[in-house]
Amino acid sequence: MANVVPIKPEMIRWAVDRSGMSLSDFPAAVSEWIKDEKQPTFVKLEAFAKKAMVPFGYLFLDAPPVEKLPIHDYRTMQDKGVRRPSPNLIETVQDMMRRQSWMREFLIDEGHVALPFVNSESINSSLEETVESISRWLNLESDWASRTTTWEEALRFLIKKIEAAGILVFVNGVVGNSTNCALNPEEFRGFVLSDPIVPLIFVNGADSKAAQMFTLVHELAHIWIGEDALVNLPLLQPGPEVVEKFCNRVAAEFLVPEAKLRAIWTTVESKPKPFQSLASRFKVSPIVVARRAKDLRLINADAFFRFYQSYMDELNRIGKHKKSGGNFYLTQNARLGRRFGKAVIAAAEMGRMSYQQAYDLTRLYGSTFDKYVAFLKTQDSQ
């Protein structure tokens, strides 16, 4: 008979609660462990820890640890902070911190210095000057969005500009490459890890494309004031904190300048689909335009919420019939960030890190990593 492992029942219960799953999602034996009727074997306890996404060593503690995210939590849910982060969120933040730490050392060795725009503004800065500074450092012309065909294309273009300015950008809807560990956009839309050498933005790719652009620019504003943040922005609305309100105003002005919107509002407000028309002009989602119109009191709150619900219902309807799939290696450009991926590849090829380290940082292993390297080189040659 396999040796059993003495584990306190409260640690098993804590791990189940922490996972966000119900007890019925686990083998029946787990209920017996919680009731202290049986003890698990080492192998079964390892399998339980993996399913619950809890570090194995935690289960041997005398009491549940207090887990805190190492970044400022600006998430709100009915005006109350969301206190317990999910295992998926915790692992994603830790993964991004590891990547940022490695990239910082790599860039310092390459002779990079602090980026001038990080922490160059404050919440007391002029809104217009902050937006102008972001545009200038990203090397964006005033009509950059109008030169793209769709707002999805505008999002990809903006990410490239942000990476070119020295900021890491990751867009992912799962933990690493695990499609069984989806990130919940209702828990968070994104986060930013500010750093003078290598600031990092993470956008929840499980969120609708309609929200990703706004989240991206909102997080840019956090970098300009030099502050980490975890956000969820329900209805594109920030929490009550002054910092969040400032970053939201910056994002709104950057994407849909007030002067331009007011100048053309009377020409579109009577159209059957005014927000879709404006979205095409500004290359943002219709929801972003509608939210901007509400904040500028061009429409009332009821009109915004009616449009928001109908638009999201339509997106959900389309999403149910949309085929999944796509090019795995093209997806990695978003999940890994093209700039980060190329840096890791360069370091591995120069012998500055082992290939095992490269595998661990990218979560691409063996031949999958090799194929991604070949894919990137093909992309660069085109």
Mean of residue pLDDT?
88
Instruction: Work out the oligomeric state of the chains in this entry.
Output: single chain
Q: Which ranges are low-confidence, i.e. pLDDT below 50, for 5 or more consecutive residues?
A: none
The shape, in one word, is globular
Distance between the termini: 61 Å
What about the largest sheet?
Answer: 4 strands, mixed
Structure, explained:
- This protein is an alpha+beta fold and 382 residues long.
- It folds into 3 domains: 9-60, no CATH class; 87-255, no CATH class; 329-381.
- Helices cover 53% and strands 6% of the residues.
- It contains 15 helices and 6 strands.
- The protein has helices at 9-19, 28-34, 42-52, 87-109, 127-137, 151-164, 209-224, 242-255, 258-268, 274-282, 286-295, 301-321, 328-349, 355-362, 367-381, and strands at 168-172, 174-175, 178-182, 190-193, 200-204, 229-231.
- The strands form 2 sheets. A 4-stranded mixed sheet has the order 1-5-4-6, sandwiched between helices. Strands 2-3 form a two-stranded antiparallel sheet.
- It is globular and about 75 Å long.
- The N and C termini lie far apart (61 Å).
- The mean pLDDT is 88.
